[in-house]
Amino acid sequence: MSFGVGPEGLLWRDGDEAVDLSGLGGVFAQPSLNPLMAQGREAWRAATTAARGHDGPRIPLPDVDLRLAFQVADYVDFYSSLEHATNLGRMFRPDQEPLLPNWRWLPVAYHGRAGSVVVSGTDVVRPCGQRKAPDEDAPTFGPTRRLDFELELGFVVGVPTELGEAVPVEAFADHVFGLLLVNDWSARDIQAWEYVPLGPNLGKSFQTSISAWVTPLALLEDVRVAAPPQEPRPLEHLAGGRDWALDIALDVELNGETISRGNARTLYWTLPQQLAHATSNGARLRTGDLMASGTISGPEPGSEGSMIELFRGERFLEDGDELVLRGHAANGVELGSVRGRVLPARD
Ligand code: CA
Questions:
Q1: Which of 207, 315, 208, 205 lies closest to 254, judged by CA?
Q2: 62-77 confidence digits (pLDDT tens)
Q3: Distance CA 15, CA 341 (A)
Q4: Do 52 and 85 reside in the same domain of the chain?
Q5: Same domain, yes or no: 45 and 116
Q6: Contact, 69 vs 4, CB < 8 A?
Q7: Cα 218 to ligand 1 centroid, rounded to whole Å
Q8: Which residue segment(s) compose the domain that 251 sits in?
Q9: DSSP per residue, 123-177
Q10: Residues with CB under 5 A from ligand 1 (ion)
Q11: Active-site residue numbers?
Q12: Is 91 helix (H, G, I), strand (E, B) or coil?
């Protein structure tokens, strides 16, 4: 129940098989989802109906040659899980309040690197950078010793805006084509040294992996649930969108073992609030803009969406490790998985 892109054009995922849609021609015979995504809601609905009814060639999923499904325009990564922001605040700033004063007033975010977004299945090479442990006098340059993953829900923009135009929370579904899973690979030692005062940069920008399959937003309409309460009440331009929590069970598998189980419905800031915030200053949306939720960690032990939280900073990814993120919506729709294997740093 999602769109992907193969060598001939668009694909439709139907259970354990992919249906080749390229025979439908037009936007279906394109090497990316961008032309379809730019067309808007009516076209998305028609395309989904056409895909579901198309009797094209079928390929077993393991044999499908999947490409990056869309050209990523800009990439923004939020920080919308209360539990994750609290857990990380405690670890990165142990002598201060874990949440900074702005956190409950706006969905905090950083701008990532669109050119480093890759499709699921792409290996990640352990990045090098500056690291300085608290007990060291000066930084050194070398391979990260604290490579981590971040389990996130992402959305991709279809319909663009003009410069100066804000997208209210109510207009979210007019602009957003679909949802996907995101792994925001993170080098915690590089991040901890570089992030003050302007936020993450090289500790994140080496690679971001996304699922090959993009699920149309309309197919997740019936898993919308009420989001957790917000206190204080957000300012008027961010006050809506609270009926947009999504009941999507998430899990993380490391070398075949499940290490985390959570749910996207726990996010404090919903996706429409994120988009409304991102455009509230008039910043332009472009077809292919990717926005991710930030790491999704729940309140229960074992529902954390990163290793630094799951293992309290005592265990990180090792060379050869293979990680898979999965999402299962409450209506039975499977989000595409995000798979990646860690390769040693380059000499
Ligand atoms: Ca992140």
A1: 315
A2: 999 999 999 999 999 9
A3: 25
A4: no
A5: no
A6: yes
A7: 25
A8: 75-343
A9: -EEPPEEEE--TT-SS-EEEE-S-EE--EEEEEEE-S---TT----GGGHHHHEE
A10: 77, 150, 184
A11: 84
A12: helix
Give residues with Cβ within 8 angstroms of 220, minimum separation 6.
179, 246, 248, 329, 331, 333
Half-sphere exposure of residue 265: CA atoms within 13 angstroms, side-chain side: 15
Please give the distance, rounded to the nearest whole angstrom, from the Cα atom of residue 310 to the centre of ligand 1. Answer: 15
Ligand 1 centre from 83 Cα, in Å?
13
272 & 164 share domain = yes
pLDDT digits (tens, 9 = 90+) for 238-258: 999 999 999 999 999 999 999
The structure tokens listed for 62 are: 């393991």
Percent of the chain whose predicted confidence (pLDDT) is above 90? 98
Sign for the CA dihedral angle at 98, 128, 77, 296 comes to negative
Q: Would you say residue 70 lies in a domain?
A: no
Query: Is 45:218 a contact under the CB 8 Å cutoff?
Result: yes
Q: Is 312 left (phi over 0), alpha (psi -120 to 50) or beta?
A: left
Q: Could you give the angle at the alpha carbon of 297 between the alpha carbons of 214 and 170, nearest 5°?
A: 55
Question: What is the CA(200)–ligand 1 centre distance, in A?
Answer: 9
Integer-rounded Cα Rg, in Å, for the chain is 20
104 falls within a domain: yes
End-to-end CA distance of the chain: 42
- Written as six digits, the tokens of 345 are 């740093």
Q: How far is the CA of 149 from the centre of ligand 1 (A)?
A: 9
Q: Is residue 298 part of a domain?
A: yes
Does the predicted model carry a pTM greater than 0.85?
yes
User: Across residues 266-293, what is the average pLDDT?
Assistant: 98
- Distance (angstroms) between ligand 1 centre and the Cα of 82 equals 13
Considering the domain architecture, whether residues 14 and 89 belong to the same structural domain is answered as no
What angle (nearest 5°) sits at the alpha carbon of residue 117, between those of residues 115 and 120? 150
